[in-house]
Write a structure and sequence with these properties.
Layout: H1 2-11, H2 28-43, H3 50-64, H4 67-75, H5 78-81, H6 84-102, E1 113-122, E2 125-133, E3 141-150, E4 153-161, E5 164-165, H7 166-178, H8 183-201
Antiparallel strand pairs: 1-2, 2-3, 3-4, 4-5
Helix pairs in contact: 2-3, 4-6, 4-7, 6-8
Length: 202
């Protein structure tokens, strides 16, 4: 169930923030809603094959997420312990790892209804609260998008489903790998997982 919820989450959708960041042209809620609507339009397009839908949605996901901010939070204290090259490499691999995890799951979308409840801002941060109504679930699912203002645009850095953080979920996975591996070996493990995933699709 959690896998499907996180899939829906992705469909529906650095360093420390700079002070006095440009004011975004749109509100956090409008930003999230626009990206979700774009994704839903793709999902409902009967002319697109499942793989084509996945590719188009992943493009939306890629541009709507602050991957460096997510990577920094996933690594936690380790982010300060590794060099800039390792940070950059992890950020890129982590992005591809997330995309690989969800590349073949968008077909599970089943016409969920999205209700945009409210937004809360505390510059440069914001959060947008939503409810997801699914025919497969008797109760609505609570969803929270956490965003950060980067150069005048709201970018997602975490998503919570029923209070469960995507960042925390991936932090656990990465920490499990690092229990028995060095940081560089962890990067190799991520790279291997990505290759295996996309290899199965080809």
């Amino acid at each position: 169930m959690k896998g499907k919820v996180l899939t829906t989450l992705l469909v529906l959708l650095t360093a420390l923030p700079v002070l006095a960041a440009p004011t975004p042209a749109v509100s956090p809620m409008d930003q999230v809603k626009s990206e979700i609507e774009d994704a839903l339009t793709i999902l409902k397009n009967p002319k697109l094959k499942p793989k084509e839908k996945s590719q188009e949605i992943l493009k939306i996901v890629e541009k709507s997420v602050d991957w460096q901010e997510v990577a920094r939070r996933v690594l936690g204290i380790r982010w300060r312990r590794v060099n800039p090259q390792q940070r950059e490499r992890f950020t890129q691999l982590f992005k591809e790892f997330v995309k690989a995890n969800y590349a073949d799951k968008f077909e599970k979308y089943s016409d969920e209804k999205i209700i945009y409840e409210k937004e809360e801002t505390d510059p440069p941060y914001a959060r947008v609260l939503l409810k997801i109504y699914s025919k497969a679930q008797p109760k609505p699912i609570s969803m929270e998008c956490r965003l950060i203002n980067k150069e005048g645009k709201w970018l997602v850095y975490d998503i919570l489903i029923e209070g469960v953080s995507m960042v925390n979920n991936y932090r656990v996975q990465i920490n499990d790998i690092l229990v028995n591996k060095s940081f560089d070996d962890m990067l190799k493990t991520l790279e291997k997982k990505i290759q295996e995933k996309f290899g199965k699709e080809s």
